Structures are given as C-alpha cells and as structure tokens.
Amino acid sequence: MSLWGLEALNTPLVPSGTRGFDCIRNKKGKAMKTAIFIDGGYIFKVIKNEFSGQLDYHKFVTEISHGKEVLRSYFYDCTPYQSNPPTTEEKERYSKVLKFHTYLKRLPRFEVRLGRLSRQSLNCKNCGNYRGKVWTKGR
C-alpha cells in the first residue's frame, strides 16, 4: 500500500484506454474542476489501522485530484458525544476534535460539514427488553 493507499482506487475508476482522470472534460474540451468528499470517520480508521503518523490533508487532496483544479474539498465528520455534564475525558476529546476541524477550515478550499452524534437506547422490538445503546449520526 502506498503512502496514500490509492492503488485500489486507480484501477476500477479509470476506464480502459485512458490516462488517469484526464478523460473527464466538459463539452468545450476543458478539464473539469474536481470536488473531493472525505468521510472523516472512515479516513480516521484507515489512518489508524494502516499507517503511523498523521495525514497532511492538503497533500492528500492534491494527490487524489491527479493535478486537476480542486473546486472544494468537503470533510464530513461529527463532534464526539458529550454526556450532561461532560466528563474530563469527553471534554479533552471534544477539544482535540474542535482544534482539528479548525485546522481543516484554514486549508485552502476546505469545508467541514458536521453532523450530530446522539446516544439512544436499543430495545427489542418483540419483547421491549433493553438490549444496549447505539450511536447514531444525524444533522
């Protein structure tokens, strides 16, 4: 796997007989602008499980855009759950995530889109007995 982990992406997305994404053009023959959509939760897991260190998101977006002009990069994430009142650990985690989102917002053409994480009880549909808790993402 490369630094970006992109070998798997290049093969299936590129039509045969073309050079990368150069085939994507508008009706006038001009190369189209690219929008990048990043699932924050997924990319955190990939980085944690496959790589050591941190990812430079600006370089990452430049690499996956294959030199095309990037219209905007959207990073989808949610802030961590906090109980009422939040524990010290929850406050620290929330603060770290907030700093990270602030860092991303300062990158050129980056937008952070946040959902909301909520905690809900999970009960059996048949008998109504408590079965645990589930985390749900919403807006």
Describe this structure in a few short sentences.
This protein is of the alpha/beta class. The chain contains 4 helices and 4 strands; from the N terminus they run αβααβαββ.
How would you characterize the overall build of this protein?
The chain has 139 residues and is an alpha/beta fold. It has one domain. The protein contains four helices and four strands. It has helices spanning 7-13, 40-50, 57-64, 88-106; strands at residues 34-39, 70-78, 110-123, 130-138. It has a four-stranded mixed sheet. A hairpin with a 6-residue loop joins strand 3 (110-123) and strand 4 (130-138). Residues 1-23 have low confidence and may be disordered.
Please describe the topology of this protein.
Layout: H1 7-13, E1 34-39, H2 40-50, H3 57-64, E2 70-78, H4 88-106, E3 110-123, E4 130-138
Parallel strand pairs: 1-2, 2-3
Antiparallel strand pairs: 3-4
